[in-house]
Predict the structure of N-acylneuraminate cytidylyltransferase.
Amino acid sequence: MKIAVIPARGGSKRIPRKNIRPFCGKPMIARSIDAARESGVFDRIIVSTDDDEISEVGEAWGAEVPFRRPASLADDHAGTMEVIAHATEWAQAQGWPLEAVCCLYATAPFVRSEDIRTGLEQLGEGDWDYCFTATEYPSPIFRAFRETPEGGVEMFFPDQFTARSQDLPEALHDAGQFYWGRPAAWLEQAPLFGPRSRPLHLPRWRVQDIDSEDDWKRAELIMNSLGISKK
């Protein structure tokens, strides 16, 4: 049995109510629910929330909300691992024979059903704990620098100052769309960024964190430019 768990708490601070705020014509969370349904791989699609309105919107778009997330897992300090472990434990308590659990973020408007299917396939191609979306940094991180308190700059890796970009290794970062995982890995909260995790590479133009109003506007511009905003 394979389930999707969409974490969506009600207390978002930086973008209030962002999980259900209209994004290009439909609630943000609806895009993740639609992708999960279109993938055809899930036996159940569950929204983990503490919020009545999010619960109503999730159910209206085809997801289930069979439990309410405890308050201890709905504050600013609750991590994704703990939330998915809670949902996994709940599902097992119902007697569900879980094979894989997919954490699918509610604010991932560019997530695609075919990527969800590919992630599941890659999880099953070896002894992996997780398979998750990732993309490369637009610039080599080894050439990165920071501003000093005095107003100057200093490199994080000064020994790489003369290195050519093409000679530096590719660096990846979390694309923040979904994470397929084995039930045992979620319950044990096994490290996500480790040797038993496999990255599913996405192009940079389909990756956008949405943590600020600027992020939101940029994501809508990208969605509109692709001509798929109402889908």
In short: The mean pLDDT is 94. The CA atoms of residues 220 and 226 lie 10 Å apart. The domain at 2-135+172-226 is CATH 3.90.550.10 (Spore Coat Polysaccharide Biosynthesis Protein SpsA; Chain A).
